[in-house]
């Protein structure tokens, strides 16, 4: 069919409007989905295409449909015209492909790294599903108007497990960007995509391809046999770190390349931070070999397998102790504990967490006796650096934890700082029933779900019955009440209970960081910002690696409109716990309010990655799903946002917080009536209308008569009619950072 004749046609429920581009496989048109009224891109196989070409189009649809990521083009469906022509309907993006951008000249290293990090994140999502793209090149990378990168064309993608994954005769690809093993017809894995992306990065920073020749055969020979000219010799301002990354990505032997895309991403973000120290990247501190550590959850070897809380408690206390070592990088609890019950060797775990050593152990308990085994392993070669087995009375658990921390410090040739002495003084008393109940409560509080907080409260209360002078248990009670009020809108009684318990925690254990976090949190909820800040600063002094003190400090500063300080606290929180999706979300909001949309968008990408990691381990975490939905809506990924929101509503259909969040996400998606329906349900379930009256996320529907009726505003009321402090941190605002999500 003539290209011009296709414009104006209706196929299925799509109106074809104009030709966007064409290639060897077919044409791509802009169109409109007549059912949903949204723009689409329609990719048609060329008329009279052979079966193999039709199969490739269907393969593209299947491969991309398996993936759900902001940096991968969204596929809506694959369909067929009445004449038997196969086409894919996919999301339409305003922007340019990277090859068109590069036609105007090379990019700065900063911009090139920002683009390639996004591509790498999309590829990492594909690789998690065992999909290799096999045709990464500038023409297949779309840069949208809001600077989001989209990976296009999965037509030659392949599952790593497929036997013909390396059949060169079946892989068209583009030789200038294909890895040596791909060109030679050998099996490929994710390292082939890493090679291709390394070639793209080379071209972005130098303005030319790494392998050029006068003929196709010459290009293939160069890829297989020649080393590219060093980027800094082509363009003097290429940073050394970027040059090193390119060299590793383009290693001829795949064994010398990055083994995992996640490892590639880590180096890329460190290169970003080297160029721009204020970039929103998480880079590891400079550490000598063996001076980085992950503490894995200890295995429960007890016959009944009912001591997980004790195993986690031992590992967590050791982690807290070694985290105080100034020159030792320690992976966060959230990072390390995601490997619970997962079959991965230490090398894979170390690569994922960016550490050189791993502590793993086991616990076997019989009555009042316990056996704790621990070993410190070198990630690089898998050899044990140190190991020990302790057989003691249960009352000696604290002594075992301290001995293990000391042995780690000696083995890694570092010194525990003075802060550990304070911790040990606190634990002179033997392990008791109160400690047992406290550890069980900690198991629940880490879940950050309403019912889990309520169970944790009961366990902490029982711990205090056993030991009325247990300051950490009082701090746990205070934090449970505070989180319940902040996340689930419980009433003033929660604020009062948090105030009482945090006072007691300070009275009993004034030198404990947990006590000051609990007190600062409780005062923050009361609007006592100055007093709250005193306690939060003290908590940071006592334990600089504690996440909660940084996160709550960030919220406090945000509530007062101190965006730069809030940003610094949230950056620190994300560095301590890279999986903290709520801190990433608020960090993005800080950047946008500071006028830095680019970093705000990057923080959104980090938030999505953190949400995906969280729900992979905890699929019932509806708060994570709704936060991810809001970020996806911000990024323009409306369909995926609705999918995530629907999942949350299916799990928690009556939870007031989820209903309120659903209202705010629907506002962002432009679904006004649906938003107001959810808002009405949320008020009926217990959310106070004052929250909606003060929430800037609802500004787009504020003038709607139905909204004004719901919140009790007089008709015609506006944002300017709200009480002073509604946006800058009045008592009702508790964060002003989108009260819905965090």
Structural write-up:
This protein folds into 4 domains: 3-91, Phosphorylase Kinase, domain 1 (2-Layer Sandwich); 95-275, Transferase(Phosphotransferase) domain 1 (Transferase(Phosphotransferase), domain 1), CATH 1.10.510.10; 292-431, 3-Layer(aba) Sandwich (Rossmann fold), CATH 3.40.50; 623-742, Serine Threonine Protein Phosphatase 5, Tetratricopeptide repeat. With 742 residues, it is α+β, with helices and mostly antiparallel strands. The strands form 4 sheets. The chain has a 6-stranded antiparallel beta sheet. Strands 12, 13, 14, 15, 16 and 17 form a 6-stranded mixed beta sheet that branches. Helices cover 50% and strands 12% of the residues.
SSE layout:
Layout: H1 3-6, E1 10-11, E2 14-22, E3 26-33, E4 38-45, H2 51-65, E5 75-80, E6 86-91, E7 95-97, H3 98-102, H4 109-128, E8 131-132, E9 141-144, E10 149-151, E11 158-159, H5 180-183, H6 190-206, H7 216-225, H8 231-234, H9 240-249, H10 261-275, E12 292-295, E13 299-300, H11 308-322, E14 329-330, H12 333-337, H13 346-353, E15 357-366, E16 369-378, E17 384-393, H14 397-411, H15 419-426, H16 433-445, H17 450-466, H18 471-488, H19 492-508, H20 513-525, H21 529-542, H22 547-559, H23 563-576, H24 581-593, H25 597-617, H26 622-634, H27 638-651, H28 656-668, H29 672-684, H30 689-693, H31 705-711
